[in-house]
Amino acid sequence: MSDFPTAESHTNRKWRVLVTHNRIAESAVALLNAHDCDVFFSPPYDAPDVVAARAADLGVDAIMVRQGQINEAVIAASPKLKVIVKHGVGVDNVDIQAAADRGIPVLRSMGSNARAVAEHTIALSLALIKEIAPLTAAVKGGQWPKPTFMGRDIAGTLMGLIGYGSIGRETAAMAHALGMDVIVYDPHAAATLAQGNITAIDDVDELVARADIVSLHCPLTAETRHLIDARRLALMKPTSFIVNTARGGIIDEAALAVALRDRRIAGAALDSFAAEPPAADNPLWASPLVLATPHIGGVTHGSSKAMAEIAARHIISVLNGQAPDAFSLATPQSLGLRKATA
């Protein structure tokens, strides 16, 4: 599936689905084929104008978004387009307003990668607490820091979660199992928080000031963009860490680079960035206190299969005339977006 297939390489099924990647789980392709959908692939991170040209040439009825920007040009390219579905849950690479303006629902594969992202969050957190990266660098560099090293305990570490959706809940459960204490800020999850063994915090400032690990699990919206800025980084303890397996724009990366440079916090682990892929000269790379992974927290065999199958079912449902699943629907209102005015 590495090459872009042409229309001639497929059967003449009723509907056409464009996937912005070179592969999805074979089970999802089979599911779509069984429901009269041909599946076409567009390489990840191709420029929007290239994707738009493919969508127009194929006359696609649906787009399954994995990687790359789905802007207004892509959304307008095919007059037959009826639905956009994310192979995952984050939709900041889709122009939600442009889709809404055309009456095209944008759906997310809710809950499909929650455990995988939570596992990655915990893995990054433990690597920070146990100083795995600097110790590895020291030993490989011919040093032996054992005589002076004193490690930190996982048990009793206070993890502060910003966001308590499906990923936040999985992360909290794993943190508790390791002996961590958990506090949460999420004004939209009061009922869920009351049911669990979780301490709710009413203010982000209080959470970042108290937590040993600040872990982000909220969507990127107008409200959450640069939620972690220079002021809030200054509130964190110099021994604390920040972990982001959500969306890069939630953190002001320039402010984070300065905080790390000045050792105002002890480290950061990032799986997402404001621009992806990030630039080779990103100021964050100057700090030895940064762990970075390429937005793969939710990319496991199990989660990828679940994401593709859920996305496929959304597509099949809408193409067959059913109403979009309300829980999975992303709208400008739900994401705190505002329609531009002239």
Summarize this structure as a short list of keywords or feature phrases.
single chain; 342 residues; alpha/beta; seven-stranded parallel β-sheet; six-stranded mixed β-sheet; disordered N terminus; Hydroxyacid dehydrogenase; NAD(P)-bd_dom_sf
* Distance between the amino and carboxyl termini: 44 Å
Specify the structural class. alpha/beta
Strand content: 5-15%
Q: Helix count?
A: 12
Compute the number of strand runs: 13
Task: Indicate the low-confidence ranges by residue numbers.
Answer: 1-9
Mean pLDDT: 93
Overall 3D geometry? Answer: elongated
State the helical fraction.
25-40%
Identify the strand order in the major beta sheet. Answer: 8-7-6-9-10-11-12
What pattern of helices and strands is seen along the backbone?
Answer: EHEHEHEHEHHEHEHEHEHEHEEHE
| Rounded Rg | 21 Å
Summarize the biggest pleated sheet.
7 strands, parallel
Protein name: Hydroxyacid dehydrogenase
Keywords: NAD, Oxidoreductase
Domain D-isomer specific 2-hydroxyacid dehydrogenase NAD-binding: 122-297
Family: Belongs to the D-isomer specific 2-hydroxyacid dehydrogenase family.
